[in-house]
Amino acid sequence: MTIKTPRLESLAHFQNRLAGFAVLLILVHVSLDVLMRYMLNSPIPATLEVVSFYYMIALTFLPMLILEYQDKHIKTDLFFRQFPKALQRVSIAASGLMAVFFYWLLTYVCFEEALSATHRGEVVMGVHLLPIWPARWLLPVAFLSASIGALFSTIRALSSGGGSPYAEEGEI
Questions:
Q1: Tens of pLDDT, residue by residue, the chain (172 residues)
Q2: Residue 151: CB partners within 8 Å, gap ≥ 6?
Q3: Which residues contact 136 (CB under 8 A, 6 or more apart)?
Q4: Any bridge partners for residue 130, and if so which?
Q5: How far apart are CA 104 and CA 140, in angstroms?
Q6: How far is CA 158 from CA 4, 89, 96, 112, 171, in A?
Q7: DSSP 8
Q8: Which backbone phi and psi does 13 adopt, to 5 degrees?
Q9: Any residues with CB less than 8 A from the CB of 47 and at least 6 apart, and which?
């Protein structure tokens, strides 16, 4: 039985493209800042803050869904391959449910923080005051989508026979 989730896959690829776009924005923004700083003696204000609070958050956390959906997180299987099939299934189920639980917990905590930051109108002080409360909403979105991805990845691994979800020996 194969579980197909085209909408989740589309969302995963969309979030991954947004993260890639954040890399491009970092490249362009920092390059323009350096050029303007040394050629015109007029750097772009708040470059460090925008890169730190907006671009880097998107770059770091948005790809989590595609990692979960494609089961591409780093894994160690020193003992897993030696487990009987039944214990492998239990291990997959337990680790998958723990991942979902912790992603949900992170979603909740980050949602509360984003809500609080929005109500306060959170800003960071640099040369100018830069509102950063909108960036706080990236984390609950990323963690919620990663939890859904972890749930579907676990269901898919269990429904495919519960064998090792890891690469076969010799594969990289």
A1: 456 788 999 999 999 999 999 999 999 999 999 999 999 999 999 999 999 999 999 999 999 999 998 888 888 788 888 899 999 899 999 999 999 999 999 999 999 999 999 999 999 988 789 999 999 999 999 999 999 999 999 998 888 765 555 445 444 4
A2: 96, 100
A3: 110, 113, 114, 117, 118, 122
A4: 124
A5: 9
A6: 14, 6, 10, 33, 22
A7: H
A8: -70, -35
A9: 29, 30, 33
Q: Where are the domains of the chain?
A: 6-159
Strand residue runs (E) in 10-95: none
Name residue, tokens 């691994």. 157
Distance (Å, whole) CA 148 – CA 134: 23
Helix (H, G, I), strand (E, B) or coil at 38: helix
Backbone angles phi and psi of 148, in degrees to 5:
-65, -40
Number of H helices, E strands in the chain: 6, 2
Three-class SS of 92-139: HHHHHHHHHHHHHHHHHHHHHHHHHHHHHCCEEECCCEEECHHHHHHH
Query: Residues 58, 18: contact at Cβ < 8 Å?
Result: yes
> CA distances (Å), 147 to each of 19, 49, 154, in order?
18, 29, 10
